[in-house]
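Priority: medium. Attachment 1 of 2:
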């Protein structure tokens, strides 16, 4: 697989760049494209799901985005060292398995990269909350914002 710059070891600038590249990639909601940013044997923990490899990643993401409609994500650099990056994230979606109620997920990810800049390990912890009364979406942060405008959205104090 070709290298995916920026490559480790990361600096503040290159770690931030890697985070924003990942944000943009995930906002495509294209499982094949997203999986290509990971090593062929990449290990994932996503909440209670543990799996590895491109096939499992693609399958997981396909199921995720079948459920999470109108998904929009923001990621911010939390910390970095050498070939590791920690990320804080927020995303909003309508839950297709719960009457299209609006929800927001808050969480932290820990990433480890190989020397070619591919992610070899992704560990994610996240929690969902309903947005608005009964999931009506009142109070959405990313309402009317596309992937190109997500970085301009102010995340309220206490949520950062």
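Attachment 2 of 2:
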């Amino acid at each position: 697989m070709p290298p995916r710059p920026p490559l480790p070891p990361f600096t503040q600038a290159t770690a931030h760049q890697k985070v924003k590249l990942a944000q943009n990639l995930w906002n495509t909601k294209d499982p094949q494209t997203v999986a290509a940013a990971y090593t062929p044997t990449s290990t994932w923990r996503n909440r209670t799901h543990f799996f590895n490899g491109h096939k499992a990643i693609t399958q997981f993401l396909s199921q995720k985005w079948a459920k999470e409609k109108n998904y929009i994500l923001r990621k911010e650099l939390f910390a970095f060292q050498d070939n590791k990056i920690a990320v804080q994230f927020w995303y909003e979606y309508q839950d297709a398995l719960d009457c299209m109620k609006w929800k927001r997920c808050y969480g932290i990810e820990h990433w480890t990269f190989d020397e070619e800049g591919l992610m070899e390990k992704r560990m994610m912890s996240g929690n969902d909350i309903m947005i608005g009364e009964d999931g009506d979406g009142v109070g959405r942060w990313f309402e009317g914002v596309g992937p190109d405008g997500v970085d301009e959205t102010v995340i309220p104090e206490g949520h950062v």
